Amino acid sequence: MPPRTSSDTSKKRQKAAIESSSSSSSEDDDFDLIEEVLDDSESEDEIEFKPRRASSSSNKKQNSTQKKNTNSSSLSSSSNKKKQTTNNRKKKKKNSSDEESSSNSDSEEKNKKKSKKTDKKKTQPTEKDKEKMNKLWERFVTGKPRLLIGCHVAFGSLGIEHAPLAAAENGCCGAFALFLGNQKTYAQKDYTDKQVSKFIENCKALNYDRDYLLPHASYLINLANPDKEKLAKSKTLFLTEYKKCERLGLKRYNFHPGSTVGETTVENGCKQIAECINWANSQVDNVISVLECVAGSGNTIGHKFEQLKMIIDHVEDKNRVGICLDTCHMFAAGYDLRTQEGCKKVFDEFDQIIGFKYLKGMHLNDSKENLNSKKDRHEDIGQGHLGLEVFKYIVNNPKFRNIPLILETPGGNYIKEIAELYDLYTGEEDEVKPSSSEISN
Question: Which of the listed residues 40, 174, 278, 304 has the most CB atoms within 10 Å of its CB?
Answer without folding.
Answer: 174
